[in-house]
Design goal:
The protein is of the alpha+beta class and about 280 residues long. It contains 8 helices and 10 strands.
Amino acid sequence: MSELLSLEELQKVYIELLADFDSICSAHGLRYDLCGGSMLGAVRHEGFIPWDDDADVSMPRPDYDRLIELALAGELQLPEGREIVCQQAGTFARPYARLVRHDVERVAQYLSDDDCPYIGLDIFTVDGFPSSNVAFKAQTKLLKALRSALLVSLSKPGTSSRSGAVAKAKDVLRPPLQAIGSMHLAALYEKMCRLVPYSKAEYVGIANGMYGTKERWRKDDMLPQQQWKFEGLSLPGYRNADMYLSNLYGSYMDLPPESEREPHCDEARWAGKDTQ
């Protein structure tokens, strides 16, 4: 079994994935943006948040649907060893896609070995949201419940990042959720993300993200783009980054306490390499 990748090695993997994805989107005229911690890293550090161990992008729903269509038809001409896994192909039980590298294995602490076994770039969707605050809060509450159910269905028995009591509760809930099926839950989750058509929406946001009611903006405010420096690359992101990041993180230019500056995703190792 190979050694775990260092944070520096893992970040280099993600830089290469971002460059691959940028080339794919440029070749097919698809829009995407840096989002979440990657957008924060671009603004505050011109690259990764120093302790961050993943990268995220988002795509407006029409561009995302076109990406999946091209991927399913085998028309993306991906670099060797790359694959876009997604619920539509039955390869990834999530309401979003992931560009993975087959040469980098994920070492999961809490998720099942049956889940995606590779490290990859998460590709979220920007969907329409209701203009009504009441309807918006109801939708985000439903999405949160579906996200929790999906992750429990994919979790390893006896594990939780929170407490032993939560681990036991997950062990009770997991069998009926697995009977429904993780792919079915992911498909339902995605369907609920699409409740408001993007083309008709006044408000949009990353419905399959993790920030709940913080994820809504006027479409006209979210659409403007600009290029941002990211680890030597020039990548697209929101021109109104201050609005976006303030909504998600508050005083985003302030560094968190040192005790909170830790990687938050799974570890990784090179596939097929044995150092023993």
